[in-house]
Every structure is written in structure tokens, then in C-alpha cells.
Design brief:
Layout: E1 14-24, E2 44-53, E3 56-62, H1 63-68, H2 70-75, E4 80-83, E5 88-91, E6 93-95, H3 107-114, H4 119-124, H5 133-138, H6 141-157, E7 160-166, H7 173-189, E8 193-201, H8 212-229, E9 235-240, H9 247-259, E10 263-268, H10 277-280, E11 286-289, H11 295-307, E12 314-317, H12 319-324, H13 333-338, E13 343-345, H14 359-370, H15 374-381, H16 383-388, E14 406-409, H17 416-419, E15 426-431, E16 434-435
Parallel strand pairs: 1-4, 1-5, 6-7, 7-8, 8-9, 9-10, 10-11, 11-12, 12-13
Antiparallel strand pairs: 1-2, 2-3, 5-14, 14-15, 15-16
Length: 436
């Protein structure tokens, strides 16, 4: 399950941020994830203020109103105050697609790609996802947990406070469960929130090559029940694409996950188009990558806004992978947005195709290569990322009652977040009402 705050994770009794040049609340009356024009609504307040008590947002408004508030006046000496003059504040980024449970970078793949090898050629030659398996299978759980903590710490320094973390480099029962346990260990050390996902169906491991059905049975009959019984995962993911798993296998995995009470999500359309209409009926929280889609796919997703607006599947775009793979093609964000399909942005942090922990860099890619506006990119990286993890009741906006997860950036205008390419302007991060 998405972890509750364990013992040892502190929060300030009361915290007040004042003199915020631009406060991006991301609050809206819109139901469900942001779509179309609503994606640009940042809920911006100038000279803003935020009060958090006990790790939760209590009030949001202007500094003038905050300093006139009778409760704040009475308790001001007890309140920790942060002056945000000249800075912007927004909800901590929600990175809804990452693969942090690995032990080493894939440098051979990197050099081969520079020399002209394509993604699938590298995989066929023994590189790619399978090349990370040996290290994960051999690594002690503590070593793997330390690798995950290192990644989470890098993300936090860049303004990310909620992270979805996948297994997927073990590809057998013991190593996949160990990976999820390591993610849980790391989550207990990290001040933010981690949502663990079982990705046993990442690729077919070498020992089952040519026997996809047999490996899928292991995922469905062994991995998923154990992960659910031990409360190691909230979601189950599948890589549904050429060279990975078929749509039929994906449906088998989705059904097994639902039977165990786990949510589902999938990598779809990264390399080739896979029909998604059969998958949508399982109410996946997110379908990710989506570089190759047809009009029928978009229509199926857009139709959910009428059928189930609060739980519509979010399309999570990961332009960091397109950038690192040197692709000329990026996901067609405008096509989704203009059709009323909600989109999120995520890093896809992983050792082979997107070794970046920076959500600000992803925002920059989204604006420059996918023609999203800065406002759309920020909403996709916060409130829609929360919807992609089914955590929008707690995360993704600065609203009374939500977790006090905030990122303070040393810039004067929100459009600077994607403007400063690969720069870290994050001044401070607040997790559950405490400075991290």
C-alpha cells in the first residue's frame, strides 16, 4: 500500500510560509484529473501564505490575511515561520513512474546506442532490461535499499515529495519480492511518500525465453499473491509492447492483480502501437509512454471522462526516455490534451533509458519538445501525477486537509521552472509539514 508515515518521520507542530511571490495551489473545482483547459489552472495566489499544522495544510491565502488571522496572532511564537520573499511555492512534485531498484548503470548500452544501436538491437544482444537482472538477484536486500534511498534523496533535492517505485529487475519470485522489500525499507528512511509497484512482467527472463505463458503464470499465481499478502505493493505494472508482453498476457496479469485487490498500470505504446481498449476496461490508474497511439485509443480514454470522471485513466508521458534514447519523436501531448485525455509527467528514472531524477528537467522537455505550456507541465507533474497514483485526496495540490508537501523554488515566476534547463533552483522542500 502507499505507505503511511512511519514512526520516526516527524512533522512540525505548526509551519507558516509567508511572502510567497507566487503560490501555485493547483486547487480547482474540477472533478478528477485535469483535462483540456483545466490543465492550465494553477490556482495562483500572489504574495501568498500557507499554514500547516500536524503535517496537514490548514489554510491557504494571502500573507496579509494570514497575518490578520486571530489564531496565528495568538500562536505566532509557537509557529515555525519561513519567509519566501522572491520565491515561488508549489506542491511537491509527484513522480508517478520510476524504476529505482537496480544496482548499476548500463554503460555498455549507453556506448552501443551512441554507436548507432537501437533499443531492440541492444536487448537482442543481451543488453537492456535483462542486463540489470544479475546484479539485482545477487545483491543483498540492504544494498538494494541503499540504492533506492540514494535515488529518492536525489529526487527530493529537486522538489519531488511523492514517488512511485517499481520492482522489475529481479524477474523471479525471490528477487522481485526482495526488490519490493528494499523499496519498503527505503521508504521508511525517506521523508516523502513512496508508492510501491510490482513490475514482475517487465520482460520475459532468459530462463523462460520462448515460454511467455509459463512466466506469466508465475507472475499471476506466485508474485502477485505474495506481494498482496505481504502488503509489499499497491499496484501491478506490465510492459505491454513488442519484445515484452502481449496484450493477452497483460490482461491475465491485470485480472490477477484485481483479484488480489491491487491496482493496475502499464507501459504501453513505447515501441509500437498496442490496442489499449481491452486494457481500459480494467480501470488502470495510468498508461505510460504512449508514443504510438491511434484515434481509437484516444477516444477510449476520452470516453472515461463521461463514464468515470473521478477515476479516469491518466496517460503518463516520460519524455526523459525519448531524450536519452536520442529519438526524434516525442509523445504527442497536445493530441491528448486537446482531446480531453488527462496527462501526467514523470521521470521514468531507470538505468537504461532515462537515468534522470529531475522533474524540472522533465518539465523543460515537455515544454520544448511536446509543446506543453509551463502551466500545463506543472499541473501534469503535481495534481495529475497524484491522480495517476490514486492519491489526489492527499497529494498534488495545496488545499486544506491535504498533506503539507511543498517545494520552494528560488525563482520569481513559475515559468522559470522549465526555462532553466537542467538547473536546480529548488531552495527547500517540506514533507508532511517539516523541512526535509
Amino acid at each position: 500500500m502507499a505507505k503511511a508515515m512511519p514512526v520516526g518521520k516527524r512533522h512540525e507542530a505548526a509551519l507558516l510560509l509567508v511572502n510567497i511571490r507566487q503560490l501555485l495551489t493547483l486547487s480547482s473545482a474540477a472533478q478528477g484529473p485535469r483535462r483540456g483547459r483545466d490543465l492550465s489552472d494553477l490556482g495562483l495566489i500572489e504574495d501568498g501564505a500557507v499554514l500547516a499544522v500536524g503535517g496537514k495544510i490548514v489554510s491557504v491565502g494571502t500573507t496579509r490575511d494570514a497575518l490578520r488571522d486571530s489564531w496565528i496572532k495568538k500562536n505566532r511564537r509557537k509557529i515555525r515561520e519561513i519567509d519566501c520573499t522572491g520565491k515561488i511555492v508549489l506542491p511537491g512534485f509527484v513522480d508517478s513512474h520510476t524504476h529505482p531498484a537496480f544496482t548499476a548503470p548500463r554503460l555498455v548500452d549507453f556506448e552501443q546506442r551512441i554507436a548507432g544501436a537501437a533499443y531492440e538491437q541492444i536487448a537482442e544482444a543481451g543488453g537492456g532490461i535483462r542486463s540489470s537482472v544479475e546484479g539485482v538477484r545477487k545483491a543483498p536486500r540492504s544494498t538494494l535499499a541503499a540504492c533506492v534511498v540514494r535515488a529518492l534523496s536525489q529526487m527530493l533535492a529537486l522538489g519531488t515529495t511523492t514517488v512511485e517505485a517499481k520492482s522489475g529487475y529481479g524477474l523471479n519470485l525471490d528477487a522481485e519480492l526482495k526488490s519490493l522489500e528494499a523499496i519498503g525499507d527505503a521508504a521508511r528512511e525517506w521523508p516523502g511518500t513512496v508508492v510501491p509497484t510490482l513490475l514482475g512482467a517487465h520482460v520475459v527472463p532468459r530462463e523462460y525465453e520462448g515460454r511467455e505463458d509459463k512466466y506469466v503464470r508465475i507472475v499471476c499465481k506466485e508474485m502477485i499473491p505474495r506481494a498482496a499478502r505481504n502488503k509489499l505493493a499497491r499496484f501491478v505494472d506490465v510492459f505491454c509492447d513488442r519484445g515484452a508482453f502481449s496484450p493477452a498476457s497483460t490482461e491475465h496479469v491485470f485480472l490477477a492483480a484485481r483479484e488480489q485487490g491491487l491496482g493496475v498500470r502499464a507501459h504501453v505504446g513505447q515501441l509500437t502501437r498496442s490496442e489499449i481498449a481491452p486494457l481500459v476496461k480494467y480501470d488502470p490508474a495510468s498508461l505510460d509512454h504512449m508514443d504510438y497511439v491511434g484515434e481509437d485509443d484516444i477516444a477510449a480514454l476520452a470516453a472515461q471522462s463521461v463514464i468515470s470522471p473521478a477515476y479516469q485513466t491518466v496517460v503518463t508521458l516520460v519524455p526523459g526516455a525519448n531524450y536519452f534514447l536520442g529519438l526524434g519523436r516525442f509523445p504527442d501531448a497536445r493530441r491528448f490534451i486537446d482531446s480531453g485525455v488527462p496527462v501526467a509527467l514523470a521521470t521514468d528514472y531507470n538505468p537504461g533509458t532515462s537515468p534522470t531524477s529531475s522533474m524540472p528537467f522533465v518539465l523543460s522537455l515537455a515544454c520544448t519538445h511536446m509543446k506543453m505550456t509551463p502551466a500545463e507541465a506543472i499541473a501534469a507533474a503535481t495534481i495529475n501525477g497524484a491522480h495517476a497514483l490514486r492519491l489526489a485526496e492527499r497529494k498534488g495540490s495545496i488545499s486544506p486537509g491535504k498533506d503539507a508537501d511543498l517545494a520552494i523554488f528560488d525563482v520569481g515566476d513559475y515559468r522559470e521552472l522549465p526555462y532553466w534547463v537542467a538547473a536546480n533552483r529548488c531552495h527547500a522542500v517540506i514533507c508532511a509539514g517539516a523541512e526535509a
